[in-house]
Amino acid sequence: MADYKFPEGFLWGGATAANQFEGGYDADGKGLSVPDIIMGGTVDTPRVVTPKGVRPNTYYPSHEAIDFYHHYKEDIALFGEMGFKCFRLSIQMSRIFPNGDDATPCQAGIDFYRSVFEECHKYGIEPLVTLSHYEFPLALSHKYGGWDNDAIIDIWVRYADLCFREYKGLVKYWLTFNEINCGMTPGFGDIYGLGILPPDDWALSFGGDSDWVDVNRTFKGLHNQFVASAKAVQIAHAIDPENMVGCMIAGNATYPFTCDPADVIKAQKATRENNFYCGDVHVRGEYPAWAKALWIERGVDVEMMEDLADRDEETLLDGVVDFYSFSYYMSGATTTHADAAAAAGNVFSGVKNPYLEASDWGWQIDPQGLRWYLEEVYDRYQIPLMIVENGLGAVDEKAEDGIFHDPYRIDYMKKHIEEMGHAIYDGVDLMGYTMWGCIDLVSASTGEMKKRYGFIYVDKDNDGNGDLHREKKESFDWYKKVCETNGADISWE
Ligand code: BGP
Questions:
Q1: Cα of 447 to ligand 1 centre, how many Å?
Q2: Residues 387-446: pLDDT tens digits?
Q3: What value does the mean pLDDT take over residues 328-339?
Q4: Phi, psi angle pair for 194, to nearest 5°
């Protein structure tokens, strides 16, 4: 094993997203947001979307979620006890501007996040704030259609500007759009990423029916997000030179299933499209050379895209990000050979890799894939990297001794942290690691509570039953040690 050492000031912590843990969906003036109209589901039953609004007597997991809105002091105290250096959370735009384009912001929303950030600092925790994590005021979707409407750029930049001003001195690490590349996943990406609404009762699933999707709207919507992000970077720097703004990509390592050169080319193509289409615009300020070929292949209007790229050339170049952040859960494999068995996956499905085990939700566990990803991305961009999501969704049950033993989670993270160490040894500039779902929360893909990631258990089930009390799992003490020793001691008996 390489003799690695985590850099001083490494940002150990945990990550969350407002719509998956905050609750208080209509509290204190908050407006409805797109996730507030997505019903619960399971691994076998897709979540159903009700685009016109909230239906009576219907369970929507985001409405209460784990009610961080009313438990934040208790939760942040637990993060502090674990020794977090960093806590990733998102701001819901609909809490600040209930309709998105309101003349004045909602003071209660501004105050809520200020209290949360102040609470973090009491424990020496740096907030890492995502400005848009699968969230978009529903009123904006109804009025403007979604991110493909140019008007949204300024509406959103005004919101970002307000956040930078209001939280100056409290927040210095920012992310613009969560997993922006998921916007390219037909259907899922349109609704979650771009605020483009599907037909009534649409079932949210990867690879599900997406006949309603208009690729021109999708790709234009993504472009407008790049522009908004670039403008936000410039404003953040102008307001406070201490600000560091990153992009956030759903990290995907795709291997060729065989050494057939056709498989290698296919895997290379997947790697580019999944990771570098968005990464290049954020980090280099321009589309990669092969973007045109991709637009043609996907049936996107090339002239429209070239005009947009020309229109915004300067903005994109002047607004490149300070660091590259990403989520990493698993790797995939791809092949041109039709007989390979299909594997389940989050956004990126592929074929089953016989060398890897999978989680209960079919996500292929691959710690070395994280090392591969870190080294590949650092080679390409040479800017600081940060892992802002990684973790294991599992069914946790209380044992007879009254404790939630989750050695599988410790094992998963331990192996991933080791691979991070290898990448650091190889020279990768890694800023931090915020594991996903440090406290149990609602799953984005399935809407379940049963798919738990946390060091902290929350008493709530898939149907919304439970008293919401919090309890430490076994992994809590393990991660405490990891944070305290700056990753030098990741052992566990
Ligand atoms: C990422 C999202 C998160 C989170 C995570 C785990 O794609 O950014 O919001 O949910 O995946 O996925 P899931 O909740 O579906 O298990």
A1: 10
A2: 999 999 999 999 999 999 999 999 999 999 999 999 999 999 999 999 999 999 999 999
A3: 90
A4: -115, 0
Structural contact between residues 50 and 37, judged by C-beta atoms closer than 8 angstroms: yes
* 167 lies in some domain: yes
Burial of 397 (0-12, 13-18, 19+ CB in 10 A): exposed
The answer to whether position 3 is within a domain reads no
Q: Is residue 471 among the annotated active site residues?
A: no
pLDDT score of 207? 66
Q: Judge whether 389 counts as a catalytic residue.
A: yes
Domain with 275 in it: 11-484
- pTM for the model stands at 0.97
Q: Would the CB of 178 count as within 6 Å of ligand 1? A: yes
Residue 491 lies in a domain: no
Report the domain count for the chain: 1
Written as six digits, the tokens of 340 are 């390979």
The domain that contains 93 carries what CATH number? 3.20.20.80
pLDDT digits (tens, 9 = 90+) for 132-144: 999 999 999 999 9
User: How many whole angstroms from 11 Cα to the centroid of ligand 1?
Assistant: 20
pLDDT tens profile 433-450: 999 999 999 999 999 999
For ligand 1, say whether the CB of 275 is within 6 Å of any of its atoms.
Answer: no
> Which residue among 389, 418, 419, 448 is the active-site one?
389
In a domain, 429, yes or no: yes
Question: Ligand 1, residues 392, 443, 450: which to mutate, most atoms within 8 A of Cβ?
Answer: 443
